[in-house]
Amino acid sequence: MGRDVKRFLLDFISTRRLQGEIESALRAEDFVLHVQPEVDLASGHIVSAEALIRWNHLERGLLPPSEFVPFAQEHGLLPSIGAWVVGRAAAAAALLRTIDPSFRVWFNVSPSELDDPRWLGRIGQFGDALQGLGVEITESVAMRDVPATLRTLAALKSAGLAIALDDFGTGYSSLAQLKRIPVDVVKLDRSFTAALPGDMRDREIVTAILSLGARFGFETVAEGIETAEQARALRDAGCRYGQGFYLGRPVPVDDLVRIVRQRRLMAS
Ligand code: G
Ligand code: MN
Fold it and tell me: Tell me, what CATH number does 147's domain have?
């Protein structure tokens, strides 16, 4: 057999195998939803959480989305995975809202889902559960086709979802377009957090985005807070919310429920 033919067959077999594994993982509940807290930097309260899918793989252990989402996207499996995430995020939000009625769970959406005309319909099926959810769209994806983004966001908002722009500050032409896009939250990319509190220019950028937020009516969440100093610098700059390993790692939903409940009890 020629080398190319052999490579082709091996690729084919391993592709079909991974496809089958993802399909059976969905059936067997081998995916898990982790949630990472988002914290009010002044009070320390956990006010919301970002949903992050993991694959509890039999042989390879707990896999991050980067290990299977691109493949799933290429092979048409993302709609099923996406629906699984929204369903689990809705269940998590329902639990957390029994403790704190304004709690929100955010989920990420990929470009191919946004481009799929059936996606909105699938999301719509969650009905009232969407009140407790928010969708994170990366800035670069939102800016690809602003008129299309505006139409999608209008539909998402009327379905009850809150909207966040993810990884903000890494895309281009953002400021010119930002004023047109009705977002509730801007998630400041972790590259700005990384050099705080030392880097004066990053401090200025954070301040500038916060003042845009005050004018345009969006909240700002700083991503990637890994130290107490970063949390303090952001709080002192007037940033209300933060997310990152220092404030809390992604954990299973039940763990977050326990943590939020405990903190509530301690605060009361
Ligand atoms: O692009 P997005 O912001 O949705 O990425 C979320 C990812 O960032 C998750 O995989 C999460 O585990 C990771 N993450 C969360 N907090 C931190 C942090 O403090 N530092 C770093 N390096 N990564 C983080
Ligand atoms: Mn995100």
Answer: 3.20.20.450
